Every structure is written in C-alpha cells, then in structure tokens.
Amino acid sequence: MNIVIASGIFPPDIGGPANFVPRIAQWLMQRGHRVQVVCWSDQLDHDDRCYGFQVHRISRRQLLAVRFCQTVHRLYQLGKSADIFFANTLDLEVRLAATLARKPEVHKVVGDRAWEVARRRGWFTGTIDDYQQAEGKGLKNWRIRALNALRNFSLARSSARGAMPSHCIITPSHYLARIVRHWLHQSADIPARIDVIYNSTQLTPSTTPIEIPAYLGPTVTTICRLVPWKGVDTLIEAIAQLPEIQLLVVGDGPDRAALEQQVSQQALGDRVHFLGQVPKSQIHSILNASDVFVLNSTYEGLPHVVLESMAAKVPVIATDVGGTGEVVKNNQTGLLIPAHDNTALIAALTQLLRSPEQRKQLTANAHALIAAQFSEERCFMDYEKMLATLSAHSQAPSTALPTSAEP
User: Pick from 15, 19, 11, 16: which is nearest to 46 by CA?
Assistant: First the structure.
C-alpha cells in the first residue's frame, strides 16, 4: 500500500500521539508499504533521514488559514498517487484532501478537541462527559456549536448515507468509541463504522540516562501535559501532606507557571521538581527511578503513559476516567481511584509505598497484561489489517462494510 499519514504533532514534539506516528510508519515500511507523513512542526529544518520515510513539515508558526491551506494542498498532491489516508489528528484537512483525491481515509480519534478548546478558553468549565450531555441538550454558545460542527463534519463522511464504504474511525478505547458514536448520531442518520484498537507500548524500552534530583525517600512521578484536566495541582496538594515523598513532574504546558507558583507558595521546592519536556528515550530512565507513577487526570482516552509505566514495571495509581479503567484494573494491574478525590489519592500512595509486596504483584500483573493485549506488534497488525481492508474496499464501492457493534 501507498499510505499518507497526517499528524498535527510529530517529533521533536513529545507525547504518546507524537511518537505513535514514526513508530507505526517505520513498522509499515518494514512490512513493505510506502509511507509519507505530513505534519505540523516548529522545526522545518529537522533532520528526518533517520526515519526511513519522507516527512513533509508544515510550519506551525504560520497563520492558521495559511497552514490549513498548505496542509490540504500537500495532502491532496500526495494523495493522488496514494492508496489511503490515515489521519492522526488533522481530521478536517484529511477529510477535504481525501474527498478531492477520491481516496479512502482512516481517522484515529484520541479525544474531544472541541471540548479541549472550549475548556482552555473558558467557554465551558465542566468535564468531557458533562460536555457531551450539554451538547445533546443544545449548547447556546455559538463558538462551541461551531467547534462541534467542524469536529462532526471532519468525521461524518464515515457515516453519511451513500458514502464510500471505505472510511473508518478508530478509537483507542471503548469509552471514546461511545463518545464518537454520539457525535455522529447528531449529524448523520446511520451509525458510523467505528473500531477500537488499543494503544500500545514497547515491552523492552530503550533508556538514555538523565539526571534526577537526589532524594532519600520515595519518588512519585507524573507525566502529562500541564493543562487543567490533568490534575497536577491537586496532586501537588496531596504531596504536601506526605512529607516523605518527592514528586517529579514531567511535561510542559500553559499551566506550568501557575503550578510552579503553587509549589513556591507551599514551600515544596525541595520535594517537587519540574523536569519540563523530556525526550522519549529518557522517559524510561525516569520511570525506572520512580517508586510509583500517578495519573491524576479528569479526562483520558487511553493514556500511553500508563502503558509505558506498566511496561517499565512501575506501579500505577490512576483516576477512573475515560478509557483508563480498560487497562488499570483496581487491585489487579494498579490502583484506580475516583477523580477529584485527594483523600483517596493520599490513601493509595500511602498503601503502595508501605507495601513492597503489593507493588511487586501489581507490576507483574500489569506487565503480563501489556504483553498479552497492548504490545506494539498486535496494535500495528490491527492497523495494517484495517488499512488494507479499506484500501481494497475502495476498489469495490458497492460493497458495504458492517457497522461495528456497541461493546
């Protein structure tokens, strides 16, 4: 197959979605497919020769309208000779380019970007689940309605009556699949083809040394974007009540300054350290130096970082939100706690740090689960099968793909 992948983030950007694209692209290349990537980037002169496939970078620093037009044009030019598009974000751009080039498309949906924008800009203050309920009742804010319309339009081709039967939406969790199905029921009269392919991680990660602040007590780590729904502020509040623990905060984002001010005001500078953005090769060194990993968020699709922690044999405490509970089974592969509950977070931290045997059992169970259900080989083979199926169906427009069943 000749595959064009589109992504709004790509290395040197960090995070699970950013690293997913080069990993699957290289895997597909090794399987004999041709892959090209179109991505947004701050570094147009980045050396991409190491990837083994061509990377077309569009400057993220341009005006949005200019960037949008350049992206659609580049995708269309590449798509004329391609077999299929694969959107890892940039759904609207792929939708337009695929329509013009008359090619099938796969969209990986990892969250609700309309809700994220509305939340960041203060147009909506509730959770992602609150947002879905409010949308069903009719939101009055015209800006939110516009965001939702663009989001749904980018994906609705997969469910429009009479559309090519060669378009699919993939989510990394059954939780997100239910949310996406709700969106498309708002804009189409038949259900979409939605498949669930779980995120994955490497079972034997490489490590590059990194200097970590020395500390005599236990080290707790969180790795995330520093945005409100990741709950880093309340995690810091919990650490303030556990004086024997050091906290490493890995990641960057718009809330970093406020979080650093919180640490300063609470005189926690000797125990809470912000490491900023860290290359993926060093993430595993940090995890290996950690006693517990915590993800205290109120919104997740299915977090890569939890899978990485499990693969690194670090015990996990996570909030029971989104698709997290599909991998973190309470008292089996980790500890699952309610969101917005610092009492439960403090109790879970205390419990794990006082029980080496429980930590050992949880990590053993988690590592076995990763090997069985969340390996890269299994994940990428599922993607390859889907891409090949849709590419073949695009040559037979009268053949209808079945609608996925509600899990």
Answer: 11
pLDDT at residue 163, rounded to an integer: 44
- Rounded to an integer, what distance in angstroms lies between the CA atom of residue 315 and that of residue 361? 9
CA atoms of 89 and 78, how far apart (whole Å): 17
Q: Are 307 and 327 in contact (CB under 8 A)?
A: yes
**Mutual angle of helices 128-137 and 174-187, in 10-degree steps:** 20
Question: Quick check: 405 pLDDT over 50?
Answer: no
Express each pLDDT in 383-395 by its tens digit: 999 999 888 866 6
H or E element that contains 86: strand 84-88
3-state helix/strand/coil string of 327-347: CCCECCCEEEECCCCHHHHHH
104 neighbors 390 (Cβ within 8 angstroms) = yes
pLDDT at 402: 44
The answer to whether 283 touches 223, Cβ cutoff 8 Å, is yes
Secondary structure string (H, E, C) spanning 216-241 = CCCEEEEECCCCHHHCHHHHHHHHHC
* Both tokens assigned to 253: 């984002």
Burial class (CB in 10 A: 0-12, 13-18, 19+), 90: buried
Tokens 């953005």 belong to which residue?
277
What's the CA gap between 351 and 91, in Å, rounded? 43
Residue 290's contacts (CB-CB under 8 Å, 6 or more residues apart) are: 219, 220, 221, 248, 314
Average pLDDT of the residues in 202-220: 82
**Per-residue model confidence as pLDDT tens digits over 292-338:** 999 999 989 899 999 999 999 999 999 999 999 999 999 999 999 99
Tokens of 346: 């403090």
Euclidean distance between CA atoms 44 and 54, whole angstroms: 13
How many angstroms separate the Cα of 402 from the Cα of each of 171, 232, 240?
17, 42, 53
pLDDT in tens, 161-206: 444 446 889 999 999 999 998 888 765 544 457 899 999 988 767 6
Burial of 378 (0-12, 13-18, 19+ CB in 10 A): middle
Question: Tokens 């992206």, residue?
Answer: 71
Arithmetic mean of pLDDT over the chain: 89
Q: Indicate the pTM of the whole model.
A: 0.85
Parallel, antiparallel or unpaired: strands 272-276 and 246-250? parallel
211 by Cβ neighbours in 10 Å (0-12 / 13-18 / 19+) ranks as exposed
